[in-house]
Amino acid sequence: MSEILCQWLNQELKVSRTVSPKSFAKAFSNGYLIGEVLCKFDLQSDFSEFSESRGSTAKLNNFSRLEPTLHLLGVQFDQNVAQSIITEKPGAATKLLYQLYIALQKKKRSGLTGLEIQTMQPQTNVRLQALKSEAFRERLKNLIPRQTDFNLMRVTCRFQEKCKQMKEELARMHVEKLERSQKLEEEQRHFNIEKQLLNRRRQNEIMAKIQAAIIQIPKPESNRTLKALEAQKMMKKKKEAEDVAHEIKKFEALIKRDLQVKESASRFSLETIDQTTTELLNTYSDDDYIKKIQKRLEENAHAREQREKRRRRLLMDQLIAHEAQEEAYREEQLIHRLMRQSQQERRIAVQLMHVRHEKEVLWQNRIFREKQYEERRLKDFQDALDKEAALAKQAKIDFAEKIAREKEMHEKISVERVQARYKKHYGICSEILDQILDLCTKVADYRLLTNNLIPHKLMHDWKELFFIGNPIYEQTPLRPGHVKPTENFLELKKKDLLDINDYEDYKNMVGEWALPEDMLNSPPPSNNNILGHLLQRLIEKSIPSQDSSAEMELPSFAVKGCLLGKTLSGKTTVLKSLQKDFPISVLSIDALVREAIRAYHEHEENSIPPTSQEGSKRNPTLNKGQVSKTEMIAGLAYWTALKEEKLCQDRRLSPQAQLGAKSEYLLRRGKSIPDILLVSILVNAIKKLPVNQSWILDGFPLTLNQAQLLEESLTSYQKKSRELERRKARMPTLAFDPTTSKEVPLLPSAFDFVILLDISDSLSLSRMHDLMAKELSGEISPEDVDQRERKEDQNLREQIHHRIVGFLDNWPPLKDWFTMPKNILREVNAETDEGSVCQRVKEIFSTEIVNKKIKVEKKLEEKEAEKKAAAALAETPVVILPPPSEAEKEETHPHQEPPKMYPGKGKAQSDTLHGKQESQQEGKGKKVSLKGKGQGGKTPAKKSPVVSSFESSPIQSSVPPHPKPGSEDWVYVNEPIPEELPSFLVPYWELIEKSYINHIKTVLRHLRENQHTVISYIYETRTNFQEFLRRPDHKQEFVSQWQADFNSVPEDLWNDEEIRAELHQRVNDLQDRLWDICEARKEEAEQERLDIINDNWLQDFVGITMNHFFSLMQAEVNRFQDTKRLLQDYYRAMESKIPLEDTRKFTRIPLVQLDGKEISESQLRIPLVPRISSSPENATIRPKLKALLKDKLDPPLEALEFNLEVDEKIVLDTWQQASMAISHMVAAEVHQRFIEEEKESISVDTREKSPQAGANKKAKKEKEQPKKKKPEKKEKGKSPPVADVSPVTISPEEVAEIERKNELKLRIKEEHLAALQMEEAATQFRLELIKSKTLTILEELVTKVIDVFRLMEKWLGKRYLNEMASIEKLTEVARYYIETATKIQNEIYLSQEDFYINGDIKVFPDAPPPIRPPPIEKEENSSLTIKQLDSLREQFLDMVPKGIIGNKAFTDILLDLLTLNFGTNSLPSSWSHLTPPDLQEITSLLTVNSEFVDWRKFLMVAAMPWPIPLEEELLETLQRFKAMDVAQTGTITFEQYMQAGLWFTGDEDVKIPENPLEPLPFNRHDHLIKFFFRLFADFEKDPPQLDYTQMLLYFACHPDTLEGVYRALSVAVGTHIFQPIETPMLTAEKISISTVSPIEEFPEAEDVTREERELKEEKDERDQKEEEIPENINTEKISMETLLKVFGGGIEALDANRFASSLKTENIYTENFIKTFHDLGSRNLEPVEVNILLKHPFIQDLIANYLDYKLPDIKMVLQRNEHVQGSDG
């Protein structure tokens, strides 16, 4: 099958990689080829996202993209198949490809595309497939190792292979070593065997010799006794021993003598050597070489001494060997001597000697072996110590590096957190600053719109938006038509916020809805307590309270808490200390998880039946249902996987074991245990504790989610909070029950206290480092720590930073959680010692125990008091009020007569009464209110039926006053109501509230938007009118034409009277024409103002505003109607009556009709009121507007005032209509009540009558007959006659029950009507407030508009007057020029209200100013002028372009110039007196090398005076020139030269003469700068180029020859060259300079003296600098070319002129410089350092005698010549 698939892939599909059966699994292991196959069938559209890499990321990406496509084709593919293919499992890829081949062939036969197949799938399958794909990706991600893990695995495998190879190599080496050792042992064994054989052979030979040497000794004589023989033997032995001892002593003496001779010789040699060494050291003690020799000698002496010791040791070894040899010899001799004894003795002696020899050998071998063993042990011990020390040292180094890395990482994390916090704070501050700018901009905009009068309401709204953080400006989209949902949401949020604020102001009557001055005396309506009570009762009926059974159980004395803190803050240590002093249980989540897993492994069975409730009984604080729900949620996400693994099939496992199974399953798959599962384990452990057992959690919870889950599991706070929120949401807002507490009760907390051990991050790290240091130092032995703790410590070390960061991230929300509802958090500074921290925690725990005991005792007392109160209420009898007496009935009867006698006139009476009340309100400005009962039960005559309806019967003074309904003493009627009533009335009230609030918010929003509209309209009106007033006119054209005509009059006609009259007439005509223009513009502006007034915007806007306020009135009326209906239904239901069907239509308040269209009444849902304007004659002007119209009555404005009167009348009529409608509804309700009561009273009276006996019966009948006649006449046809009712006997219990029902009905009626009265009073007050607000706003609006119209009129008049004044000024100016007979040169400007003479514009040009003559240079102090210098330069340049000329030729040229100077001014006049000797002296000063003169140097000297540059100035100038020379050619142009500048500039303080005909002063320095460029530039190039280095070498000349040379070297090198300290060659120069310039002979030569003084100061400064010369100077390198350039070695004068034949200079220094460079080690003429070059004798001599850089003083000759001429004269 593999071959078939390979053929299909390679030949038919032609995949990008050739597939063979051998590499089939590897080719498809990354999924790329599978994606290519699907792409070729147009099923994988995202094939471009596939990767050919074999990394885990690429495999995960490829197979995640393949999974949906394969499922679409129906190929079986899941994470197991993918893992098999990825791991290259044999047959997995082949199987998948075969299935894919079959599916693709089916798809090919069907002809469907991938999109069609996908479209055919159901929508639900598509969503499910997407979820499955996501789950597949996550599971595959868990199955596939990460690339880093794979790389780590490969590295590990590589190192394992390497380790395996090393182990094999070590094993092989060990085997070889064993083989070698076995071989050696075998060789040793063979050697020992051979040696033993040899010894045996030798022994046999000895025994043979002994046998052969046996001599048969004859029997001794009788006189040879045994003692004599023994004595003879002893003598022989003693003699032999003495001989041997003598020989030994002789040998030892010989040896000692030789040793003494050698020691004396060596001692003498050592003493001589030491003495010689000491002398040499004393002689050459300062030389390192001698010290080395001394060390070598010491080493030789030590080596010699060691050699001597070795020699002596060798001699001793030889002596010992010799002694051993002698001992053997003596033994042999002894043997030979003993051989002469008997055979038996000899045999025994041989055996004894042999045994002795063997013992000695064994003893020596044992000693040698023990010695080897000892050496080996010592060596191994020393090696182990060295290795341990090296490891400890390396461990310390690694530990220090690890600590440094951890500190660096901690600092990095801290910096990142600080940066994140800074970015967050920066973003917040930036947002706040933007909002501040928006607020400022908004205020500025509205200040412009409102003339700095921003309404208080707008400012308040902006502040609200600013404080909440919403944008003030509307968020417009960046592109039109693209609006983000967030922008719309923000705008809606802003509008809702402003709507809520406006509604709260309206509801509480504050802010804009504060009471006006005329309503301040009337208190605002109070809360309708009766309505609030019944609403609260209905809501409670609709939401039954769910009291948990846990609240009925007794509270527990157990103290519950947790101890939190950072890693290594001391939590476990503190809890251990606390556990010693208090009987508490410490719960650690890690230990609980391990216990749960251990319980699962031990198969712990559930000892409690499933139906048992013992767990809930043992701990009443736990909710069993909630815990089971939590456990169900914990296992829900992983239940499918758990089923696959069959971990929870055994239901007999305990809950702890089941939770352990879930935990182990997750941990084995590399997943973390979710928070819900951790909480379940913890709750299960808490359930096992006794009820009163205190417990503390160790380091749990760590996150806010864990805290919330634990709180929910222990207290079910979420359920209770949702219930409280649901109740709060359904609480009424328009009326509330005062008896209901508004405070939300605090939910119980799962903990009594939470302790935080606060330590810094650095301390946590330092504690971790201390633990590691203790382990390294051995203070904590490995035996004391088990494997698990060691693993935990290792994990702690690796995760210490992550734990600290995690705590810092999770602690702020946790802190808020533990402090916001109940402050149970206690912080303890854990950076102190352990004892103080434990003591502090113990104090907190003791305090919590006392507080818990107090709370529990208080709760027990409260429950006991509640039980007693309930028992007392059960025993109290029901008090029934006595029935009213006959007198009370008779007194109450007249109050009921009006509705009985006039049933049809109740409405009229209420109308009239209400009209009176309205008149009183208009007169006094008070609200419509109804007072309670009067004293003694009497009511005023003008009270409404509502007041008379619920007035009680007269009460005696001794009886306490009856409580008023709704007051604190009033007992509400809480009779049972139908169960279905709350389900109808509560939604009905919610609908009332919602419609009322939305209606009010909508109207207030429109009113708020109208305020912006008014501001914008007023601003636009003002600005448009101002722009209209500033529209352009054509007055300037007439003025310009008149000015042109005026200036065109000839000057000779100015004095003609007729011409003047004509000009005056033209001025008058111009004035008239301009006046006409002003009049026309004024009329247009007035018409524009009238158009603005008459555009009816104000009337329309006032109508819209009135309709908004009428909508507010409509909302109040609607609310009253709905509330009346709700009260009616509620109380009728309480009386067990059927609700009435309300046939009356809802009251509609009419709106203002804005257009004039006539609409039929049938088409109108809301009635409209037409706006009828009243005539101005019949209307009166209001006092407030009278002040605006006091100066002049304006008919348009008067019409606006008249319309305002009409609008106010409409407002008053509408308000009166709404108020009367409310009064009518109240009266109708009261009337309905009276009718029902009358019917009920008739039926009750008939039932109460009973037959009586005796004569009293007739009398009573006679008295009752007249009373019964009236009702019979009245109610004829309505009810059956009373006489027909048969009398019924009633028992006393029934009578009491009837009395109680009557009393209850009376209280219901009283409460109902009181609630209706309160609602009526509140509605009337609101309507009054709306009316006042409407009138105020309308008046303010009209006042604002009238102010704008008056302001427009003011602007118009002011502008007209200003224009007329400007025309008058123009006329006066024109007449002035006519009278003075002068032309008007500057333009006359007249535009709108501005008139002035424009000095910037002239209508005819001015006379040309006189031309200033050019500056002329004058001769001063025999200095050549610039013109003369240029002339000489041109002459020398024509004759000698190269610049070098012979001295004789130079003298002849100067002489010719002096001879021909008359009339040409080629030279100054003072030069004309020079004689030929003077010229020769000048030539000698300029002579170079005794033959030539540099004419450029001559012109440079002749151009003096100019500032002589310092060396620093020359170098700075050089640097500027180099900066301009970007190409580094060494030359610059004239523009670059002028831009860089020299060390001096032109005269800046040149005074300009006031006389324009006087020339400007000549700027010689500026011309000199330009002349120097012309002097040294090469004009043969285009443009001319200047060699700036060569020019600066000329300026390096100095009166001091040596100083000039060093200045030139500095310029050539580019840096300062220091002179050597000793300069003996300067003396002659100084003498020559001093002799050349005798100041005593020429006292008038002040310039020369000043220059010499400056040179002397400069010399002193140079000498001072020489004293401060630093070390390592003149390290710059100088080349051969630079040196030749400085000393003129490379210049050849080859000028093509008449002097060229004799002006050729030779390169006289080249050979010497080459030799010098060779002497200094530069064979190839490489650049050498200046300090080395200056030390060469030739260079020193050349510098001392080189005179080219001496600055000659030719002015001295000129001054001397002038002095001589002056003395001759």
Task: Please tell me about this protein's structure.
65% of the residues lie in helices and 4% in strands. It is mainly alpha-helical and 1769 residues long. A hairpin with a 2-residue loop joins strand 8 and strand 9 (1394-1402). It is flat, with a radius of gyration of 65 Å. The model is unreliable at 547-552, 609-649, 876-959, 1173-1181, 1188-1192, 1250-1286, 1623-1648 and 1689-1706 (pLDDT under 50).
Structural class: mainly alpha
| DSSP helix fraction | 55-70%
What shape does the CA trace take?
flat
Uncertain parts: 547-552, 609-649, 876-959, 1173-1181, 1188-1192, 1250-1286, 1623-1648, 1689-1706
What does the secondary structure layout of this molecule look like, with pairings?
Elements: H1 2-13, H2 24-27, H3 32-40, H4 56-73, H5 79-86, H6 92-110, H7 114-120, H8 123-143, H9 147-212, H10 226-283, H11 288-338, H12 343-450, H13 456-468, H14 485-508, H15 529-542, E1 560-565, H16 571-581, E2 584-588, H17 589-601, H18 614-618, H19 624-636, H20 639-645, H21 655-668, H22 675-687, E3 694-698, H23 704-715, H24 717-730, E4 753-758, H25 761-777, H26 787-819, E5 825-829, H27 834-875, H28 886-901, H29 906-924, H30 945-949, H31 980-1029, H32 1035-1047, H33 1057-1093, H34 1097-1134, E6 1151-1152, E7 1168-1169, H35 1183-1186, H36 1195-1248, H37 1256-1274, H38 1292-1380, E8 1386-1391, E9 1394-1402, H39 1426-1439, E10 1444-1446, H40 1447-1459, H41 1476-1486, E11 1487-1488, E12 1492-1494, H42 1495-1502, H43 1511-1524, E13 1531-1532, H44 1534-1540, H45 1564-1576, E14 1577-1578, E15 1585-1587, H46 1588-1595, H47 1601-1613, H48 1626-1636, H49 1646-1667, E16 1677-1678, H50 1680-1686, H51 1710-1719, E17 1728-1729, H52 1730-1734, H53 1737-1745, H54 1755-1768
Helix pairs in contact: 3-4, 4-8, 5-8, 10-11, 12-13, 12-25, 12-31, 14-31, 15-31, 16-27, 17-21, 17-22, 19-22, 21-22, 22-23, 25-26, 29-36, 31-33, 31-34, 31-38, 32-33, 33-38, 34-36, 34-38, 36-38, 39-42, 39-45, 40-41, 43-44, 46-47, 47-50
